[in-house]
Specification:
The structure is a single chain. By secondary structure, this protein is an alpha/beta fold. It has a single domain, classed as TIM Barrel, CATH 3.20.20. It contains twelve helices and eight strands. An eight-stranded parallel sheet has the order 1-8-7-6-5-4-3-2. The model has no long low-confidence stretch (mean pLDDT 96).
């Protein structure tokens, strides 16, 4: 395990499949190489964009091992845990630590809308079972459970719970968390469309989606913000916003995988029950992509600030 800070751009990386819905590790490694070259600060496996619900435990282990080997311990590899039972979540956390993961991202219990007390108990059981650093994924919009300030207060006794993926879509929650906890929890924006605002208000990082297709532009925005180059950050973000809005759709996986095809960073295949976009939905994404690629920023100079 390497030491790392919860900061910077961390792609919620997609899982690449072939036409028969098997893992395409060559395509996965191609995308991962582009992320590393762009300068991302960590990799998150098995999230929503990683189509975790369709992956077997063996496949997750394969993706973890592949990523660890490729990043050469230069950046952390974080595994998402999204399970229906506490026992399985605890077992997977222990397995992830044994297999070399550097950190965990935790969703509340899946399918069952747990009470606040049950959610805290679920997170507590996992935190007690591992020494890995943990980021809580707070996404009440999609997962119907809000992790409140009071719940984070109860979780604060677990020193390895030290970050939150802030996906409430309420930018004021960044300030609310900082006012209440100071720097006890690092905050990473989890919604592409409000990343710039979250970084301005003190978020330390960005768990990004469209980065899977546009790694350099995403890292450029973060780097410009940290360097105080707000005009440069705004310029890239204004270009990016129409594409970033593809991240807040129920079909975000299909959307982003279409973008990956356009930029040469993915196969485009999604695993059932997801199906490829067709008709108007497909054409709308393609039109957005064409406009975006025509106006794509050139000669980004963000690396001089690294």
């Amino acid at each position: 395990m390497i030491n790392f800070k919860w900061e910077g751009v961390m792609p919620a990386i997609t899982t690449q499949f072939d036409a028969d819905f098997n893992l395409d590790l060559k395509a996965f490694q191609l995308n991962l190489s582009a992320q590393i070259e762009a300068g991302v600060h960590g990799i998150i496996l098995g999230g929503t964009l990683g189509e975790a619900s369709t992956l077997s435990s063996k496949e997750k282990s394969t993706l973890l091992a592949t990523s660890i080997e490729q990043v050469e311990r230069k950046i952390p590899v974080i595994l998402n845990i999204a399970e229906q039972s506490t026992a399985v979540a605890v077992a997977l956390a222990r397995q992830a630590e044994d297999e070399g993961a550097d950190g965990l991202m935790l969703l509340p219990p899946m399918r069952y809308k747990a009470t606040d007390e049950e959610t805290v108990a679920y997170f507590s059981a996992i935190a007690s079972s591992t020494t890995l650093p943990i980021m809580i994924y707070n996404n009440p919009v999609d997962y119907k459970i809000m992790v409140t300030l009071e719940m984070f207060e109860k979780l604060s006794k677990y020193k390895n719970i030290n970050a939150v993926k802030e996906s409430t879509r309420d930018t004021t929650n960044v300030t609310r968390m900082i006012n209440h906890f100071g720097d006890r929890y690092k905050i990473l924006c989890g919604v592409d469309t409000i990343a710039l605002e979250c970084l301005l208000m003190g978020a330390s990082g960005w768990v990004a989606g469209l980065v899977d297709a546009f790694p350099q532009e995403t890292v450029a925005i973060y780097t410009y913000c940290k360097a105080g180059e707000w005009e440069k950050a705004r310029a890239v973000f204004r270009w990016f916003l129409p594409l970033l809005e593809l991240d807040i759709s129920p079909q975000l996986v299909q959307n982003i995988k279409l973008c990956e095809v356009a930029t040469g960073l993915g196969t485009g295949y999604v695993r059932p029950p997801r199906m490829p976009l067709t008709g108007q939905a497909h054409d709308q994404v393609q039109d957005l992509l064409l406009r975006g690629l025509e106006m794509r920023p050139q000669n980004l100079d963000y690396k001089k600030y690294l």
